[in-house]
Amino acid sequence: MFDVSFSELMVIAVIALLVIGPEKLPKVARTVGAFTGRMQRYLAQIKEEVNREMRFDELQKLQQEIKQSVENTQANMHQQVTELKTSLTDDTKPKKVANSQSKPIKASTSIVKPTKQKVETTKRTKVAAK
Q1: How many C-alpha atoms does 116 have within 13 Å on its Cβ side?
Q2: Which whole number is the average pLDDT over 7-11?
Q3: What are the C-alpha distances in Å from 86 to residues 25, 29, 80, 106, 113?
Q4: How many CA atoms lie within 13 A of 119 on its CB side?
Q5: pTM score of the predicted model
Q6: What are the sequence ranges of the domains in the chain?
Q7: How far, in Å, CA of 56 to CA of 63, rounded?
Q8: pLDDT per residue over 61-102, tens digit each?
């Protein structure tokens, strides 16, 4: 902050010794030291408050971004659910046949003939029953 060399500090100390006197110099030095300590603490508190406010502003911006992202996601999900509901209701409705010349489906009328093994067993059971 200030560029004060050792020689300049010595000049200030000698002048203070001559002006204040050797009896009051220790008391003044303690008072000046306490005052500079208070000023440093005060400046540190101000810096901390400024940093805290900056972090708070950043967190508020981040919160707004997250809130906006959540709202966008909810809107997209709502839109997709609505589209899904409409597509499901469209699928469950009976569809009209566009081609009226479609062929009817014929049922198969094939008769299953018993195998020889079954015929033989039925003859045996008839013979055994008599």
Answers
A1: 0
A2: 90
A3: 91, 85, 10, 35, 51
A4: 4
A5: 0.45
A6: 1-90
A7: 10
A8: 999 999 999 999 999 999 999 999 888 887 776 656 555 555
